[in-house]
Structures are given as C-alpha cells and as structure tokens.
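Appendix B. Chain record.
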Amino acid sequence: MSRRSTELSQELTLLDLSDNKHMSWEEFNEKVITLKASFAQTCVFFLNSASKDDLKKLKGIGDKTAAYIVELRKKSPRYFRSLSDLQKHGPLFSIGGRSHGQIFCH
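Structure tokens predicted for this chain:
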C-alpha cells in the first residue's frame, strides 16, 4: 500500500463514526484537529507539486502568483513545508485581510 493510500485510509477511518452512539466534545475536537492538519499538509503538497495552470485554479491565485510559486520551487522542490512557511511571503498569500492558508483551505 502506498504512503498516500495509507494516509487516505487513516483519514477515512477518522470519518467512520457509525459505531459511535455518542461523541464527546473532546473526541470531536480531536478528530477536527487531526483532519485540519492532514488537509493542511495536502495543501502544502499541492503547492509544492502542482503545475502553474493547476495553481491558478485555486481561489486567489492568479498568473503572477502561480509563476512566483513555480520559481520558488526551483530553489527547493519542497519549498513549502507547512502552512506557516506561507507567512514568509506575507501579502502574497492573503486575500482581503484573510490569513494565509484560507486561500487554499476553506
């Protein structure tokens, strides 16, 4: 099984709540945090691997920003390692005052 298949399987397991008759706030919050972290990493992976045309399909990413991301990746194939790395580029990754990450993960 590939790494991505394993991750997807783990994500689906998190979503399988059919056996639970009741879920506490703590259990719910833990699942939400885990899913958010997984989704954030998926967004980062996409930024590091998507073509310029695919990047432009993201809300808030135009031709200039997509080209800039592709240029950054020439410095390092895994230029972005976490959503916090986006902060280094300030306004480039914000729209209308929204913080980084919301462009990709909303």
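Further analysis of this model is presented in Appendix C.
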